[in-house]
Target: Bifunctional protein FolD
Amino acid sequence: METNKILKGAPLAAEIKEKLIAEASAMEKKPMLATVRIGEKPDSIAYERNAVRRMKAYGMDAKSYVFPESITTEDFVREFKAISDDDAIDGILLMRPFPEHISEEEVYGTIDPMKDLDGISPINVARVFSWDARGYAAAIVEAIVRLLLHAGVELKGKNVTIVGRSKVVGRALAMMLLQHDATVTICHTKTVDMDRRCREADILVTCAGQKDLITAEYVKKDAVVIDVGFNVDEEGNISGDADFDGILDKVKMITPVPGGVGGVTTAILAEHLLRAAKSRRK
Model:
């Protein structure tokens, strides 16, 4: 295996962690994260546990709120607003996707933008799209860009294809890459000739949530592939969207799943939490 091609997130995450521990230890009160989850989806549980563990490792605190999948939108919005209004909470991480009967828009409009660490509130979405530095982008979006820059990958003038058009990740990532003067294409389920459009990319980012979606036919030689897919099978094994072994020989760099963007994402989340706590305590 050509290990020099594997772009791991651990070195960047370690740099961020060292800085955060120093800053958090200087605060009178530890920043407090609230994780909020509906139901028992394995991938949400895994992400929640990892986030709580990492916050504590960074010298911060975290508490988890779990609601049954049967909860109504009205009841959940009421409970969620109480969490958002709690002065002891500095930042909130909301596990998604929701059960189908829950109205995302009603929930997203409830969160305090100052505590919205993952860029879901309408105010933060608008700030990200208008390049307003006060807004929080989704931690995973910032992690992707930071990891590319840390690895010395040039963004200016490069063709970047994003597979996935969600408002919080795909579209928000496009806005952040445009800030770095990349030329961005977004592909989705209705894209015609998606394999050709992916092959045109110098940098290919996949966030579709579909195992082995990206095969060698989708990747041009010496492309950089950032895999942020998160798929959990019945045995609990985690994989990304890319056929890692099938495209490794063809790429310049590729992030593994797990071990790639995920660790950096959690570090960025902690960075957002520290920033939120400092802003609220001025």
Summary: Strands lie at 32-38, 61-67, 91-94, 159-163, 183-187, 203-206, 224-227, 231-232, 238-239, 253-254. The chain has two domains: 28-118, 139-262.
